[in-house]
Write a structure and sequence with these properties.
Length: about 575
RNA sequence: GCUCUCGUAGCUCAAUGGAUAGAGCUCACCGCUUCUAUCGGUAAGGUUGGGGGUUCGAGUCCCUCCGAGAGCACCA
């Protein structure tokens, strides 16, 4: 529709012999100003040195000469806006279109034929799945789905640190505390490893002798010379990775085959690239090489290319590759393996500056990657009540936060009469939704304040609220199965605000991709749900004297479909009941 | 010190350079023999951190100051 209006305006400008400039078409805040609005007259008035209102009037007259059936009227208003009002026919057709397209409703083709890779979550084996991983996952999964909805081939990647000091600390802890019981659940074993890691880590910081022991273990993890350590390593890696998979399943993420990348594999690849691109000693960097030696280490002087960048170490003075080098190995591997048109990496904001330097270094080696890499960062999660512990009193992890959320939903539903199994199932879906929505409702960039109570509240501005609204809609549809609408097929003349939002899903998805911000979808759905609730409150649908019942039911179906597709974009499912 | 991100109602957040800056929570009031009232409506709440500038038009762009968070060489 937007494109159609754009063409219409283009045509009008042509007949008026006005040079086309960069005008915009948008939805006015207030529907009394139409469904679409353009600033074309104000933009063009300047160069023509005319009054924008007069120009708007002229363009309007021109536009009215060939209005399509979807537009009922055009008006000029305010400082020179031209407002378009969509017709009853447009909205009625739109409802039919939604019912027809079903799960494809809201998709666009802006990325057709493109391949987009999204890397997110990135937890480390031997360490707990943190709140940060939960955030990155929610954001990355949603972005992946937005990309998928824009018709791109979507590849989901995960990058995990399976070597390094944290592994040695955990192994030391396991050796000290002993192996857990065989019959423990995977998640419990993973939790046990997390405890061992914490203990090892504390001892590393406080005891010099233990620190040395852990460093020895670290070397042995690399060179694989110690049978006992190898055994613990293989076991621990497998257990934690398996536990992560359980969490992904709960969260609704499925990473692409062959797209689990590990630091252990990326290190040698990166190291080779770095060494090949390293010049001689400091002061002799005329060879055009990217890296150079400095104090025994191999570094990249970012500030030589851009004063906003800084120097970073890629291979330390002991000859070991740092995280930077592994990142190079990862990036090159991704491009060589999948050759994406765009490679998006989602991490916390603390990696922003570091990533700029690494990206610059990669761009110097592979100039064709430069415009195809994008780093998205998000803030930290803070707690409204300031508490950093879970309900059970432990240090809070991503998993415990998720469990807390589910437990709270279960508590809220204790009055509902359902079979036991069903309640648990619903509380999972709703608990995930509570967390995801809290993360995805605000723009990326600054920290989010997580309010446990509000997030699981079924009232306004929450995931459960959106689910509840959809469930109510579904409930009408179920009841309507034995409701005869044969003599209730009239179409109302009046256009509800619900209909005025319903058709916008596709535009919201496009906008969300252009900005790479999932919260636009969340904001839209909340507005849409609130319009539905207003409609629901004002209209009794399953009533014998409702001559619009057929259309109303179609409208509700269309609403439900839009919610389903929109919530899918956020990674949220709708339960049958709640 | 330098770089990045951010600063909007009491709180948590929206607002592709557009019209009277919007929601939710909280507080007060109103509406269920009804398709799930865990809903809807009304009211209240603002010098968009301060000051300049660009623009027909600035919460949004530029400069400057203040404040918060993150980062700045051998950790990831």
């Amino acid at each position: 529709m937007k494109d159609q209006i754009e063409k219409l305006i283009g045509g009008a400008l042509k007949t008026l012999d006005i040079e086309e400039s960069n005008f915009s078409i948008e939805h006015p805040e207030d529907f009394k100003n139409g469904d679409y609005s353009t600033n074309v007259a104000m933009v063009c008035a300047k160069s023509l040195k005319t009054n924008p209102r007069e120009l708007a009037e002229k363009i309007k007259v021109e536009l009215e000469k060939n209005l399509p059936k979807e537009i009922s009227k055009v008006e000029t208003a305010g400082p020179g806006f031209i407002n378009f009002y969509l017709s009853r026919e447009f909205f009625t057709d739109n409802v039919a279109e939604i019912l027809n397209k079903k799960s494809d409703w809201g998709k666009n083709e802006i990325l057709k034929g493109k391949k987009i890779m999204v890397e997110y979550t990135d937890p480390n084996p031997f360490k707990p799945f943190h709140i940060g991983h939960l955030m990155t996952n929610a954001i990355g999964e949603s972005l992946s789905r937005v990309v998928e909805f824009s018709n791109a081939e979507t590849v989901r990647a995960n990058y995990q640190g399976d070597v390094g000091p944290h592994v040695a600390k955990a192994i030391y802890g396991i050796m000290k505390k002993g192996m857990p019981e065989e019959n423990m659940k995977v998640s419990e074993k993973a939790h046990y490893i997390g405890v061992c890691y914490t203990e090892g880590s504390n001892l590393y910081d406080t005891d010099e002798n233990i620190k040395k022991e852990i460093e020895v273990i670290n070397k042995k993890v690399y060179d694989k010379t110690d049978e006992e350590i190898n055994k613990i390593y293989d076991w621990g890696r497998e257990v934690t990775l398996e536990a992560f998979e359980e969490i992904y399943k709960l969260l609704g993420t499925k990473f692409s085959d062959g797209c689990y990348f590990f630091e252990s594999a990326m290190a040698p690849i990166g190291e080779k690239i770095v060494r090949e691109n390293t010049a001689g000693a400091e002061g002799n960097r005329s060879t055009g090489k990217v890296f150079s030696e400095s104090d025994g280490a191999i570094v990249f002087h970012g500030e030589e290319y851009d004063k906003k960048l800084h120097t970073r170490v890629f291979i330390n003075s002991q000859g070991l590759p740092t995280y930077e080098t592994k990142e190079i190995g990862l990036t090159v591997t991704k491009f060589e393996k999948e050759n994406p048109d765009l490679s998006i990496v989602v991490t916390a904001t603390e990696q922003a500056e570091y990533m700029k330097v690494v990206s610059k270094a990669i761009s110097l080696i592979h100039p064709d990657y430069e415009s195809r890499m994008k780093h998205i960062t998000h803030g930290m999660m803070r707690f409204a009540d300031g508490k950093m512990s879970s309900r059970k009193g432990n240090v809070i992890t991503g998993e415990s936060l998720l469990r807390d959320s589910m437990d709270m939903v279960l508590e809220k539903m204790k009055e509902r009469e359902m079979e036991d199994g069903e309640k648990e199932k619903i509380s999972e879906v709703v608990g995930v939704s509570a967390l995801k929505y809290s993360i995805l409702k605000s723009s990326l960039g600054s920290d989010i304040i997580y309010d446990r109570e509000k997030s699981v509240s079924f009232e306004g501005d929450s995931g459960p609220y959106l689910q509840y609204t959809a469930v109510r809609a579904n409930s009408i549809l179920n009841k309507a199965k034995d409701f005869n609408t044969d003599d209730k097929k009239e179409i109302p003349g009046e256009i509800t605000d619900l209909e005025k939002y319903l058709y916008q899903l596709g535009e919201v998805v496009e906008h969300s991709y252009e900005k790479l911000e999932p919260h636009h979808v969340a904001t839209y759905l909340t507005k849409l749900a609130s319009e539905f609730n207003a409609f629901y409150g004002n209209t009794q649908i399953l009533k014998d004297d409702n001559k619009f019942a057929k259309y109303h039911l179609d409208l509700i179906k269309a609403f439900y479909q839009t919610m389903q597709n929109g919530l899918w974009l956020l990674g949220i499912e709708i339960p049958e009941r709640m």
